[in-house]
Amino acid sequence: MDKIIVKGGQELSGSVKVEGSKNAVLPILAASLLAAEGTSVLTNVPKLSDVSTLSKLLEYLGAEVSNEDNQVSINASSKLSSTAPYDLVSKMRASMLVMGPLLARNSECSVAMPGGCAIGSRPIEQHLKGFEKMGVEFKNQEGNILGKSDGRLKAANISLDFPSVGATQNLMMAASLADGTTHLENVAMEPEIEDLADYINSMGGNIQGAGTNHITIEGVSKLAGSRHEVIPDRIEAGTFMIAGAITRSEILVENVKTNHLTALISKLEEAGVQITEEGRNVRVTPSSHLKPITVKTMPHPGFPTDMQSQMMALLTTINGTSTITETIFENRFMHVNEFSHMNADIALEDNTAVIKGRQLQGARVKSTDLRAAAALILAGLVSEGYTVVTELRHLDRGYVDFHKKLKALGADIERTGDETAHKSAVTTR
Ligand SMILES: CC(=O)N[C@H]1[C@@H](OP(=O)(O)OP(=O)(O)OC[C@H]2O[C@@H](n3ccc(=O)[nH]c3=O)[C@H](O)[C@@H]2O)O[C@H](CO)[C@@H](O)[C@@H]1O
Ligand SMILES: C=C(OP(=O)(O)O)C(=O)O
């Protein structure tokens, strides 16, 4: 079994470069299906397992996809299949994002329901209700959602019950080829929504207001492939900022858009970490005595749920009592149990974690989701002794060469399938 072994206690130094954003590129890959002519060339694409999974799904649906270094080219000009099968959809929930493009191109889709996942049940009724307003009828058939409209989708006025990122993206994609002007209200305002709108507009679409809570989409009759550079990954950037903070080390994080990270930066500053913008880079300079803080996850521009577990890792090391309240996902505290194996003092009160800082101890822990994987590794950087982190398939969904980047910063970290050399030093459970 693949595992990462970290020996705690090393100071970090130097710089680390952030990749293109996973959560931006996944909807953009799905949106490439909207182009009935031409080839899209996406650059700054991170080499992640989620990108390969979605590329396979696009190929299954009939697109030609080629990958070279950090560039992916997609030609979706052939007639597309409308069926997204369970084995591909179940690997990654973002596969649901092909619904909008398929309904727009084919007036039908059949997408397997992937069910819940480790962080919650993650229903998609906001997507379906929006599509229904655009003229789609749905039925469930043996675990698949079948959607069908009578010809071209119709523009609609849709107000989401809450700002779902995926529903905003799916409806934006569908509306971009619909008949008329769609108004989407109470939508998500994440930077990845703006990046998707920029890509669709570069294909010939007409989307205004992305990044605000009201998006207007004038449907066009066709879209064509285009070239687009994916924005930097704000969550990977934030994860490395916490790597500097947790090790009390000064590091430079390269390729960061600080305006995508305002909530995280202000919480780090409140805790005593100095964040200095240097052109496209960010210098992280923690003070030696960090202070406890209160954090609450919120839709953007609030504190991102995807940084919650990494922030928890940091707070377990700060003297005093901090709290984190999770408001986005119903079950995104699975890592608390893993942190407690590392001697962390965390009590759960409903959706709030009360964290009292103390010295962490190395232990054998398992990644419970993608961000938890990174958070446990961060905790391992400052634990006494060795930490072994397993279930790395989660990490590989969202981080490119995570252990190599930390090693280059000075961490004592290996990734291996053989832990025998370290077994005696590691607390097993
Ligand atoms: C690939 C991608 O970009 N994933 C991100 C996206 O996920 P995703 O797009 O799935 O997140 P949503 O904003 O849709 O979901 C937020 C919450 O709303 C619930 N919900 C959502 C839709 C719906 O129809 N009904 C419903 O109840 C979900 O279960 C969840 O509890 O935004 C999340 C919130 O910032 C991030 O954590 C994920 O990293
Ligand atoms: C929850 C995440 O991703 P996904 O929505 O793809 O599961 C994440 O990136 O932290």
TrEMBL record:
For this protein, the Enzyme Commission number is 2.5.1.7
The pathway this protein participates in, as annotated, is: Cell wall biogenesis; peptidoglycan biosynthesis
The catalytic residues are: 117 (proton donor)
On whether Cell cycle is a keyword of this UniProt record, the answer is yes
Q: Which residues carry this modification: 2-(S-cysteinyl)pyruvic acid O-phosphothioketal?
A: 117
- Source domain of life is Bacteria
Spell out the InterPro entries in the cross-references.
Answer: Enolpyruvate_Tfrase_dom, Enolpyruvate_Tfrase_sf, MurA_subfamily, RNA3'P_cycl/enolpyr_Trfase_a/b, UDP_GlcNAc_COvinyl_MurA
> Do you know which CDD domains this protein is assigned to?
UdpNAET (cd01555)
Pfam families in the cross-refs: EPSP_synthase (PF00275)
Q: For this protein, what reaction is catalysed?
A: phosphoenolpyruvate + UDP-N-acetyl-alpha-D-glucosamine = UDP-N-acetyl-3-O-(1-carboxyvinyl)-alpha-D-glucosamine + phosphate
Q: Which residues bind phosphoenolpyruvate?
A: 22-23
Q: Keywords on this record?
A: Cell cycle, Cell division, Cell shape, Cell wall biogenesis/degradation, Cytoplasm, Peptidoglycan synthesis, Pyruvate, Transferase
Q: Where in the cell is it found?
A: Cytoplasm
Residue ranges constituting the Enolpyruvate transferase domain according to the UniProt record: 6-406
- List GO molecular-function terms, semicolon-separated: UDP-N-acetylglucosamine 1-carboxyvinyltransferase activity
Q: For UDP-N-acetyl-alpha-D-glucosamine, which residues are the binding ones? A: 93, 122-126, 306, 328
Task: State the similarity comment.
Answer: Belongs to the EPSP synthase family. MurA subfamily.
What exactly does this protein do?
Cell wall formation. Adds enolpyruvyl to UDP-N-acetylglucosamine.
Name this polypeptide is given: UDP-N-acetylglucosamine 1-carboxyvinyltransferase
Q: What is the lineage of its organism?
A: Bacteria, Bacillati, Bacillota, Bacilli, Bacillales
Gene name as annotated = murA
